[in-house]
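Dear colleague,

Following up on Tuesday's group meeting, I ran the structure prediction for the two-component complex that the binding team flagged. I've pasted the input sequences exactly as they went in, so you can double-check that nothing got truncated or mislabelled along the way. The structure tokens for the whole assembly follow below. Feel free to forward this to whoever is handling the docking comparison.

Inputs:
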Amino acid sequence: MNFALLEQEKAFLGEEFLTWLWFRTETGDGTFDLPAGPAGLFFDDYLALRSFETQAHENILKKGTPTASAEAGISLATGKKVTRAKMICARENREWTFTLDAASFRYASVRCPALESDEPTDRFLETASHFEELTEIVDSVFRIFLEERLASEWSSEHLPKISRWIRERRQREIAWGDED
Amino acid sequence: MPALRTSGSFQRYFLDGEAPSPQDPQFLERLQEHRFQTIEDASEESESVGWVTTLHPFDTEFTLEKVVVEPYVTLALRRDMKRVPRSLVKAYVEQEAAALALAEGREKISRNERREIQSRIESELTRRQLPSLSTTVLLWNVDRQILFFFATSQGTNDALNRHFRLTFDCGLIPAMPILLAERLQMDASLRSRLGHIDACRLVGRNAESGGSTRTHEAAATAEGGLA
């Protein structure tokens, strides 16, 4: 199997997931009830968006809260989807930061929660379990996305909500711009 | 006790097939067989890839104590490369070619002479050059058959894929979204749709009115661009 080609051909699935996640965090509270316990996934201060139709156009927004910016709204409204995002993941008193690449699901610059153990073996196992827990949380949220994305109601129910969110978000930004 | 940092970048893999268990004597034997081999004395540009322990890049004495903390196996893939900078080779060749032409009272040297000079200089410089060294940690949950490889560059990941197969006769499947989706617990009817899924447009009249999901290409053609 040519994994590089497959990654390129199916990159949209990860891009739609991250864009859906943005929609979910902005229209909800960003927390998810998962089999291993509730967890939160939130966007941090790096966001890259690209259009499938115009591969050459990529918007990279850094610092502050990129998801709240008008530039991000314009990108969404012109059909771009999220290709990379820095995220914060939280469960109970544990917090991770990481940058997720939509096409490959490669995790970059991961910072795990502080260790509580003192003994070397326990510290090793705690670190390993932090990496596993992070991916378990993202996998579980990805599964929630897939259950919507693959459902027959996707086109009639879920997609229109995302589309409306993008349009209304952009309309609000334009209205705020007019007030200024 | 293997070493593991609390931060880093990684690519996750699933095991494609069956690798020997760490308790199987074959496991350590295979690691030993495919351990890192130095290229410090090589006189040709080369690359060497092999296993070392996570304790030190020179440590190729594998024991269960060094690589196993159940349910994990922790190894490091060492990848050394010897490459002489092209600009340096060119500078030396120019210098020698000019000296030879001058000594023999010729305007320039032949193509064959230049080739011989270049080959000799490349060999001399490569022998003097020290290899670049990189080690990348592989964390392998043996029970779940999931692996975390702490590098995201394509070259290093390709090296892992080749060397892992060579060592354990077993491939690795990257946890990219479409392949991860196939492994998640989901209703069979939903899973069956994965094979036919196409990209969808999130904006435009069709998306908002609940029209059918179509590929970007088809949608763009039909609607003449974005709404």
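Chain A touches chain B through 60 residues (CB under 8 Å).

Cheers,
M.
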